Amino acid sequence: MYSVQSGNLKLVKFLLKKGCSAQDKDHEGSTSLLLAAYFGHLDIIKYLLRHGSSINERNYSASTCLTLASKGGHLEMIKFLVYELNCSLQETDSGGTCIMNAS
Fold first, then answer.
1. Cα(60)–Cα(51) distance, rounded to whole angstroms?
2. Measured between alpha carbons, how far is 62 from 95 in angstroms, rounded to an integer?
3. Share of the chain residues as helix, strand and coil, in percent rounded to the nearest 5
4. How far, in Å, CA of 81 to CA of 84, rounded?
5. Measuring CA to CA, which residue among 29, 49, 35, 30 is closest to residue 7?
6. Whole-model pTM?
7. Contact call for residues 40 and 72 (beta carbons, < 8 A)
8. Residue 66 burial (C-beta neighbours within 10 Å; 0-12, 13-18, 19+)
9. Using CB atoms within 10 A of its CB, is residue 17 exposed (0-12), middle (13-18) or buried (19+)?
10. Does position 102 have pLDDT exceeding 60, yes or no?
11. Among 26, 39, 86, 100, which is most exposed with the fewest C-beta within 10 angstroms?
12. In Å, how far from its chain's centre is CA 2?
């Protein structure tokens, strides 16, 4: 998860090849995919989605990739999630819709 937060795609690839799981959760229930969305690492999101992660993942606050990307203020990530993956701008978490959460 630290390699995801720091945006180190090379290390993410290495760790997954060595058997680490992208589905492990942190204390908030966030997976590597959700963390990549929050920190705005689009290259890592794309890699994780190609290797088994699901765009439908949610953490304990019901946050999705889109709601977390909006909280992080990552416009390119939001565009990718909406236009390429058809995520709905009406997705909600405990804080409201992604539009309400935008920084």
1. 23
2. 9
3. 50, 5, 45
4. 6
5. 35
6. 0.88
7. yes
8. buried
9. exposed
10. no
11. 86
12. 14
Is the pLDDT at 45 greater than 70, yes or no?
A: yes
Distance CA 76, CA 47 (A): 16
For residue 15, the one-letter residue type is L
* Distant-in-sequence, close-in-space partners of 98: CB < 8 Å, separation ≥ 6: 66, 67, 69, 70, 78, 89, 91, 92
Half-sphere exposure in the Cβ direction for 16 (13 Å, CA): 22
Q: Which helix (H) or strand (E) holds 37?
A: helix 32-39
SS3 at position 97: strand
pLDDT above 80 for 103:
no
Q: Which domains does the chain have, with CATH numbers?
A: 2-101 (1.25.40.20)
